[in-house]
Amino acid sequence: MDYKILGWINAISLTIVVAPFALNFLSRKLFNSKNKDIRNIVKYLRKFHKPLGIVLIVIGIIHGYMALGSLRLHTGTLLYLSIILTGALGGSFYKAKKRIFFVWHKRMAFVSVALLMLHYFYPSAIYYLLN
Ligand code: HEM
Ligand code: HEM
Question: 100-124 as b/e, with b when 16 or more CB fall inside 10 Å?
Fold first, then answer.
């Protein structure tokens, strides 16, 4: 399988994983949080949150290794590290139920989405910085 297809599977997974948060945010802004259709979609999408988080961790590294042929510093590597950290914080919150893990889970989710934008639009950004 082509690394590009795996890259898109990752990007779509990340979109579905953050969709409940994004939809709730929009719903609050647009409909004062009372929209029943959005609530049902969010409820449905939440079923995929943890499985797709794990998909990202597994397929992310396969995609990256196939794309570069080795493990080295790249915007994708930064994105992957951010995703690992996000997933670890989500798992920690799930196990320990400590609010601080949830706060940082959400902050790192935001960083991951930002790094996906960097990785997609400026994949070689780090090379420009280093050279
Ligand atoms: C170990 C981590 C990773 C490495 C080393 C890596 C590396 C790469 C490289 C070298 C490319 C080609 C960029 C170019 O055209 O110059 C690429 C494309 C891409 N990557 Fe990654 N990546 C990693 C992780 C990820 C993750 C976690 C995601 C998504 C959440 C992702 C999504 C994508 C997408 C959507 C593309 C564009 C594919 C296309 O051209 O159609 N990558 N990646
Ligand atoms: C790796 C990519 C992941 C991202 C980007 C991500 C992102 C998010 C975001 C933005 C929220 C807030 C949802 C809201 O406030 O509506 C959330 C909630 C949560 N996440 Fe994650 N997450 C990821 C992986 C995981 C994993 C692997 C686990 C556990 C094994 C996990 C466990 C949770 C839990 C327990 C919640 C709170 C309950 C819920 O809203 O479903 N997350 N996640």
Answer: ebbebbeebbeebbebbeebeeeee
**Cα–Cα distance, 118 to 60 (Å, whole number):** 15
> Which mutation among 21, 43, 49 tests ligand 2's pocket best, with the greatest number of atoms within 8 A of CB?
49
Cα 20 to middle of ligand 2, angstroms: 9
- Which ligand is nearest to the Cα of residue 93, counting in written order? 2
pTM, full prediction: 0.92
Contact 86, 105 (CB under 8 A): yes
Helix axes 3-31 and 99-121, enclosed angle (nearest 10) = 120
Which residues 6+ apart lie within 8 Å of 126 measured at CB? Answer: 73, 74, 75, 78
Note the pLDDT tens digit of each residue in 2-45: 999 999 999 999 999 999 999 999 999 888 777 899 999 999 99
